[in-house]
Amino acid sequence: MKRATSHQVATLANVSRTTVSFVLNNVPGMGISDETRERVLAAARQLGYVPNAMALSLASGATQTIGLLMPHDDQVHANVDAYIPRFLTGVTLTCQASGYKVLFEPLNHAAPAGACLNLVDSGRIDGLIALNPRQADFSYLNDAAGNGFPLIVFGSNLTGHDNVHSIDADNRDAARRATEHLLALGHRRIAHIAFAHDDYPIVRERLLGFRDAMQAADLEVDPAWVSYGNYSAQSGAESMRAILARSSGVTALFAGNDTIAFGAMAALRDAGLSIPDDMAIVGYDDIPLAAYAAPPLTTMRTEPFTEGSEAAAMLLRIMAGESSARAHVKAIVPLVVRRSCGASPT
Amino acid sequence: MKRATSHQVATLANVSRTTVSFVLNNVPGMGISDETRERVLAAARQLGYVPNAMALSLASGATQTIGLLMPHDDQVHANVDAYIPRFLTGVTLTCQASGYKVLFEPLNHAAPAGACLNLVDSGRIDGLIALNPRQADFSYLNDAAGNGFPLIVFGSNLTGHDNVHSIDADNRDAARRATEHLLALGHRRIAHIAFAHDDYPIVRERLLGFRDAMQAADLEVDPAWVSYGNYSAQSGAESMRAILARSSGVTALFAGNDTIAFGAMAALRDAGLSIPDDMAIVGYDDIPLAAYAAPPLTTMRTEPFTEGSEAAAMLLRIMAGESSARAHVKAIVPLVVRRSCGASPT
DNA sequence: TTGTAAGCGTTATCAT
DNA sequence: ATGATAACGCTTACAA
């Protein structure tokens, strides 16, 4: 793999490396003769010259690359989760449009701080987006931000870290509204299956919102009604079966996400139960397949692609030195009503 | 964002930069005194020293980064496709285990050659995995490989490009077997909905396999039976409705992928048709949700995570200078029978 | 056992 | 209008 250097271009064009740089970067006010410019351009073309990105980064101090940090447990997460890939796409396309590359960094329990720190400290990236970081990740993220490193935290509305720019959906509020939808339909015994362990702030938020709604309706939530999945539809099915087995008399389910909901629905069908007659269901995320569930799933709509784009756009802005004040954006999460909860309020 | 340099470490430890480098890299046979080593290590720790990756790359000629190239059309593809994210995860985790980062590069129709070429020519990456490249992408991929650039092509078994290492599933054979499953069940009028336009070799292969099976059974395939989707469940539903509207009397569907199948199933349910009684369906991919469809979807099982891991492992091996001969691996695609085609052969 | 110096490919500041 | 030269942070012969 031989690559041409600016030196070779200079030699071929009979000029100095400086001139090559001036021509190729269109440096203004340098009064390069048209003749010279042509010669340099021709030489570059002939040699297939492309500037070396590493040398450029070293000299300029910028890598034109950002990092995307995301949680990742045991293959399951990024493997099965439907939100992340779309977020990633949003981030990537937005960055691409501005000439930035994105470095993808799944973060598992095993290597908590190391990977990220290294990414930042080794000067490999100019900015970082952390998607749904856990509590444990937050201390060094906050440090990095404190040192002036451009950082966007997406999806964990932790307080007391005013250094970091953040974008959030109000998961708690959305979960409350999801539950209220069920309540308004007349349901009183409502189950919740969290989509993961609750050391992720996001799952805790949804659980909290669920409880908020129940409490506001003066309803006790029986511990037998809540269960924890692990992102997969399978865990949703198992949780549903467990809840059914406890014969807790629940008539509705607020699923922590749509994948969980799909699993629960399958378990219900297998048990010969009807949706929504025996069990009304609302999900969360509005994954592309949600509208194609049987029956079509009522769910809270998130916009991963848009959110990824916005996170990237915000990061780009910060890196460009605009927007000095710490921003804390809240996204809106609408309820989209389909058929999994039946027709209208009782 | 201030970062410590090896120079500062050297100063603090009262040694030269060379010594710092020797100590930190554990260069053997250099006989560094334990006392000195300790002092250097302490200084590095105290300063939070992390070597600058760009400088390191420039000096060593290696970036410890690979690129992942993938097709991408109009948001739809990476946004809705269920295969890619899992492949990506497999690639990333395998690379991570070897200390490699991965640069994610979606490639859309608009910027065909540019993005990839630049990635390679700018020396930003040490190797490249191209996932399902289109015919058009192949010429420069082949060039890069010809220049000795480590490259794995996954999923487009193009011939006449012996420079490139490739991994493939035999899509044509798999599609044939999927169709044969339907045939064995007694179906004669079988529809196919391709999951994308057929300038992707992979969708052409599946179409070809479908035709192979039909032809082997001495069956004509009516043009009214085949339709083209665009990755989305929605396009699957539309295609299904179109096929139904042509009242072509088909009794079975081989869907180009599972997402398409989900859409088709929804359209069927809406039309009051029963699966599998009115329409038997086999999909392709075995996405995580396939087993949770209503009814559970019979489909061809791909293993995106494993395939991604293997592609990465192979690339890593090539970059390490092992395996000189061009490898062309074929993966196996088993049929997994669930309930969307009914019980047993007629 | 440790230090000096050259080189990796750029850009940028000066002279000329 | 163009060309030396230094600087970016590191590795690695080679010297001492």
TrEMBL record, chains A, B:
Q: Does the keyword Cell membrane apply?
A: no
Record key words, sorted: DNA-binding, Transcription, Transcription regulation
| Keyword match DNA-binding | yes
PROSITE patterns (UniProt xref): HTH_LACI_2
Its signal peptide is none
Q: Taxonomically, which superkingdom? A: Bacteria
Q: Please give the CDD domains that the UniProt record associates with this protein.
A: HTH_LacI (cd01392), PBP1_LacI_sugar_binding-like (cd06267)
The molecular function GO annotations come to:
DNA-binding transcription factor activity; transcription cis-regulatory region binding
Q: Which intervals hold domain HTH lacI-type? A: 4-60
- Protein name as it appears in the record: Transcriptional regulator, LacI family
Question: What species does this protein belong to?
Answer: Paraburkholderia megapolitana
